[in-house]
Amino acid sequence: MKIAFIGGGNMAAALIGGLVKRGIAANGLYAVDVNDDVRRRAEAQFGIRTGAAVDAALAGYDAIVLAVKPQVLKDVAQALAPHLTSRPLVISIAAGIRGADLSRWLGDYPRVVRTMPNTPALIGMGVTGLAALAGVDAAGRDLAAQVLGAVGQIVWFDDEAQLDAVTAISGSGPAYVFYFIEALQEAARRLGMNDAQGRALAVATFTGAAQLAAQSGEPASVLRERVTSKGGTTAAALASFDAQGVKEAIVRGALAAQARAREMGDELGNA
Which of 101, 72, 247, 95 lies closest to 171, judged by CA? Predict the structure, then answer.
């Protein structure tokens, strides 16, 4: 398997590291980035080849992963289009950019998979939503699954429009978790704990609760009810949350993220 990356930032590095751990040879991986420091870091960390520009060196790869910011993806795609002669699978991890727009920028290239990973991929615990254009065959889908599966779980969607919802739930989701951890740490501070104590309790609680939810297979509502004794401390906290509309506020926030992802697709796709 030969895989090239355009963009060598954190997510690309996570994917490269995951692929190497899964046995993909370093000499089959290649990364393009305009930043000298990023290229040197990739070479030192993974032993892969790098380049500074989108050029003919990208020919002959099985897959090309576009790991650049959405705002520059159009320019990158147009530069890449002449170098797709070997018909590689093109995988985008850019938020908001629709597969049809990317295909058009690539000269109506059909072999495109749009994905939305999240930052826990940096430690191999990510989750990625994927949607393939009609021109991607079963082998192409398998290849995309291998690449993104190197950093965590994958979930396929038949309707690409759902990837805006994926962005809202799992793409942006780690920030929601960190936001709640911040709140628990602030509560701990007000209750007289020092920063180290509050962080240890808040982070370990989230880690343990998430693992319990993952391993039990039961609905989160059932797990919550088991922790909540009538008239007890947990019930008091949850009653306060409900009175202040915390759950609905979280839902509305995720809906706002989905709406913004859709707006980005409109804005950047029509640029």
Answer: 95
- Per DSSP, the three-state class of 92 is strand
Phi, psi values for residue 132, rounded to 5°: -105, 145
Using left for φ > 0, alpha for ψ between -120 and 50, and beta otherwise, residue 109 falls in beta
Q: What is the pTM of this model?
A: 0.92
Quote the CA–CA distance of 126 and 108 in Å, as a whole number.
31
| DSSP, res 169 | I
How many C-beta atoms surround the C-beta of residue 243 within 10 A?
Answer: 8
Name residue 131's beta-bridge partners.
114
Res 176: pLDDT:
97
Amino acid 126: pLDDT: 97
Given a contact cutoff of 8 angstroms between Cβ atoms, the answer to whether 78 and 100 are in contact is no
Q: Judge contact between 49 and 27, C-beta under 8 A.
A: yes
Question: Could you give the residue ranges of the DSSP H alpha helices within the chain?
Answer: 10-21, 36-46, 70-80, 99-105, 138-149, 162-166, 173-190, 195-216, 220-227, 233-243, 246-269
75-100 residue pLDDT tens: 999 999 999 999 999 999 998 899 99
- What's the average model confidence in pLDDT over 59-87? 96
Side chain identity, residue 239: A
CA dihedral 262→268→270→271, nearest 10 degrees, is: 160
Contacts of 187-195 with C-beta under 8 Å, sequence gap 24+, read: none
pLDDT digits (tens, 9 = 90+) for 167-221: 999 999 999 999 999 999 999 999 999 999 999 999 999 999 999 999 998 999 9
| Contact residues for 232 (Cβ-Cβ < 8 A; gap 6+) | none
82/239 Cα distance (integer angstroms): 60
